[in-house]
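Hey L., structure's done. Input below.
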Amino acid sequence: MRLEMRRLMFLAMCFCVYAYGFGAAVVHVSPDGNDGIGGFGPFRTLEGARRRVAEMRTEKRWQNKPITVEFSQGVYPLTEEVVFTPRDSGFEKAPTVYRAAKGADVVFSGGRELTGIQVAANGDWRVRLTEVAEGKAYYEQLYVNGRHATRARSPNVASPAEYFYIERPVVRAVDPATGERVLMERRAFYGELNDLSILSGVPLSSLSDVVVVMYHSWETSRHRVSYVDGKRGFVMLSGDAPWRMMYWRNRQRYHIENIPEALDAAGEWYLARDGWLTYKPLPGETLENTKLVVPVAKSFLRFEGEPTAGLLVSKLRFENLRFLYAGYELPARGHGTGQAEVDIPAVISCVGTADVEFVGCEVGSVGIYGVQFGDGCFGNALRRCHLHDLGAGGVKIGGDGRRPADERSATSHNVVDNCIIQTGGRIHHGAIGVWLGHVCDNKVTHNDIGDFYYTGVSVGWTWGYAPTVSVRNKIEFNHIHHIGQGMLSDMGGVYTLGYAKGTSVSNNHIHDVYSYDYYGAGAHGLYTDEGTTEILMENNLVHHTRGGGLHQHYGRDNVIRNNIFAYGMFSQVQRSRREDHRSFTLERNIIYWDNDSPLFNRSVLDDMVDIHHNLYWTTGGKVDFNTKTFEEWQALGKGEGDVIADPKFADPEAGDYSLAADSPAHQIGFVPFDYTLAGVYGPPAWKAKAAALKVPPLVLTPKPPPIKLKVLDGGFEEHFPGDEPLGATIYTEKNPGLIEVTTEMAKYGKHCVKLQDSPKMKYQFNPHFHYLTKLKDGIAEASFSVAIEHDMTLYVDLRDYTVKKEFAVGCNLLFSKGTLAFAGVDEKHTSIALPEKEWVDVVVRVGVGNKKSSSYTVTITLSGAEPKSYEAKLVDNEFTVLTWFGFVADGTNSSACWLDNIDCKLVEDAK
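Output:
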């Protein structure tokens, strides 16, 4: 070490002569240096070197001379971020360069490697962290050999379902913090008792360490637990989710993290407050070949310019430096955002920077985004950098979803080129590989972006047709792959929003884009979402997507040309909304698939799309055009120059989409392009690093299990007022409060359900709710009590969804204008007068399965009267199995009814 120090001192003194004689300076940094040394070092830390350079830049002699800060090989602890301000800037033709010495491996580490690990009798690895035991620290991430280890969770990642499912939402509940009953639709839910039994032994004082991850459509939110009632399956979270529970659809998913009882699978870990960290090693991991690191730092570098004052951080360059290990701490009230995790910061963050470059750098094993060029950043670059194992996304260009305040805060002319951006969203699943929001004239080119759970590249950030600055961005020659992986929905390899004139999404290779799909909308290669306008998408190879190669939600005058779209799972091209202007032009594309899914997912038979000179071919069915033949399609004036023929790809199943010399694609004017140019370039080792990514085989989650209809034991006594009914599927067009438990006029106990109709409903059959069941082979009995206003129109159906058509109705009861009517297909209605807002008991019995008959019985009991039974024929003779029991408000006015004692079951034969 002393010899090394002497050598560095000698070099530094020699360089003083060099610096004064030739007009440049080199400041040295070494792990054995001294920040108090002065001169040209060697300093010990990046911060020490930064301070010295700032001092030098105040001296006139160094204001027009390049300064290089050179780091010797080694690991440099970086537990607090280093802040660069305008006084750290270089000068025109005299930049400041921070770089690794030639051949040196320079690591800035924000983590602490764990030592003293013990192997328990059951094979677990255990180590005690004294700073945690003393209450000085707590870690929410563990990095094992450079990857995010799985925090103990239930259900396990490798389980067949991988998720728990909400049984029903909560509308209002008592807040333990205030004792008041408040709206809780975003922060409380009921789950299955078996799923939540894992929380039964957690003391109240430890609940805040337990994390519940809620899955929405295109996002997840993370929450600490504040209260659990294990007997009722009730869970209250510490803060709100972005949407109310079950906003997107019933059977919303969630999982539970950081609980010792969930530590049951290889690769999982748990840290107790007494300081003991336990890790279950994966097969093949030994103490000798495995490194465990906990993150101490939260971020690495921050560049703080003042763009509105014209004070920028500029002329800085960082070369061949590695930044590893930083953490994320979930706030007390949890975290959730509307899209793309735009409010999650980056470990290298820039505001008000110009000509700041990162070349050949690495950012890995972090809890948030990698790099952000925020407000007032222009002319910056990220080149040949490797970003991996990211808690959120790779790169953000723009502020956190906000429009720039003025021109001085605008972000433009930044470059992300030839970078490997892989394995992201490990904590914040909705994060993006490269996100561009309210920015212009940026280039995202020749990157390899893979292994994310949401979108690869997102650009725009204005919904609809409002003015925007997001123009002339170039998303070109990128390899974007293994996106979504069946976790989230409504995504794209490249996703766009808003006015985008001059923006090009071209020459990209996009594949393996798969969504969850049971709520949300699909996974597409190119996704022009709300209001995308005047964007060009050409020469892209897109294949193996769950939705299709192209989906335009709505937009105007987009041009989609000379692309290859192949192997869409559910469709190939989709336009979701027709508007009174041209949606897009689809021309000179090859569309190829191997299943019986439709060419167009939605109708494109109108004049608002311009589709011509495309080639279509499927090996798994037939090509039609919204059910029309090719001839009928062309008779509508569509498809000029279209061809239905095999394009003669060389070997598409093996990934070779080159065309034979006699391919009929030439007939449509298709111009072959070299899709192998997409992705990183340079030395073979750099390309090999990008190609080395290993992604687990895709396993799509099965359809969520249906909510089981439960016997309610006399009513809704286990509910809180304001709750939605247990086990029901609710449709209120996202208007809460129309179907809820109330204490207004229960027949049994204190509670019943109030169903209120509203003239604001888009569909007359809303609001409604139903129970799903599957009663067969016996006598099915559906019963309920109802009190109804005479202005209310309510019908009650028993349905069978196992038939070939949409469904068959067995029984239909209609409550309207003070009467109850029911009938079979061949007889007059039976009408029974009902008193207003007085309880009536209704019991319907119908044979199903091996007891199927052609009729059903209805027994009515008015208040104070004897029961009366009636027999009627089935509405649809195909009715065989009872799968749906529902209550539908079918009016158009403001009115209400009350329901109690709802039940459905098989009963013994009865006359």
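The first strand starts at residue 25 and ends at 29. The radius of gyration is 32 Å.

-- N.
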